[in-house]
Amino acid sequence: MRELPTAIEIYKMLPKKNCGECKFPTCLAFAMQLANKKVSLEDCPYVEDSVKTTLEESGAPPIRRVKFGAPPEELEIGDETEMYRHEKKFYHPTVLALAIHDNADEQEQMRAIEQACSLSFERVGQNIRLDALALYNDSNDAGTMESLAKRAMEKSGLPIILFGDSPDAIKNAVKACESRRPLIGMASTSNLDGMAALAGEMKLPLCVTADNLEELAGLATRAKEKGLQDLVLDLTRDGLSSSWRT
C-alpha cells in the first residue's frame, strides 16, 4: 500500500496564505486535518490543480471507488483501505447481479427481471436482495441488446450492467438506459479501443477483462492512458488459480 503524505509534506504544497477560508487559522492546521482525512482538499480555494492531482493520487485507497447506477439506487464498489478481510471491514460489499441474456426469448427475459426485483430474503440478520441487472449481448446484435435494455428500464429500477464484445451493440444499449448510468464492458484485447472510446464519450465506468494478471494489468494501463479512471477489473473467466501459475 502506498504511504500517505505527512502533514508537513502536505503543508509544503499548500499556498501558505493563512487566509482562514478553509475554516482553519493556518495552512499548517489545515494540512494536519488533511493528513488525518478529516477535511477535503476542496475546502482550500487556492490550491493548484497540480497539487490536487498529486495529493489525490497519494491519498487514494488501494482500490479506487467506482460508482454506477442512479440515485437512490446508485452503487459504489471499491474505495477500500484494507487489503485483507480480517483487518477491518469492507464498506462496499460485492454487488449481486442477475445475468440476463439477450438471446433468450422475451418472456424468459421479463420473468427474470421480475424475479430480480422481487427477490429478498433474510440470512444471519441481514436482508439479502439483488443489487443490479447484468445484461449480456450474446446475440452480438445491437438491436436485440437495445431491446433488452429497454425492457430492463421499463420493468426495473435496479442499476444496469451492460456486457458484450461489440462496442456498437453496447452503445445502442447505453442510449436506451443512459439515465441509469450503467457499468459497461467487457473490454478485452480485441475491443479495448472501441470500449474505452465509448466509456470516455459517455462518461461511464468500464469493466476490463483478461485471462491472466499480466494481460489484465496491461489492459488497465492502456485504458488509463486513454484518460479513463473508473475501471473495474475482471479476472473470472478462467479463475484466479490459473493466473498465479508459473
- The N- to C-terminal Cα distance equals 24 Å
| CATH homologous superfamily (4th level) name of the largest domain | Dihydropteroate synthase-like
Q: Give average pLDDT, whole number.
A: 88
CATH fold naming of the largest domain: TIM Barrel
Key words describing this protein structure:
TIM Barrel; alpha/beta; 9 helices; 10 strands; 6-stranded parallel β-sheet; 3-methyladenine DNA Glycosylase II, Chain A, domain 3; 246 residues; 37% helix
General description of the model:
This protein has 246 residues and is an alpha/beta fold. The protein contains 9 helices and 10 strands. Strands 3-6-7-8-9-10 form a 6-stranded parallel beta sheet, with helices on one face. The protein is elongated. The C terminus is likely disordered.
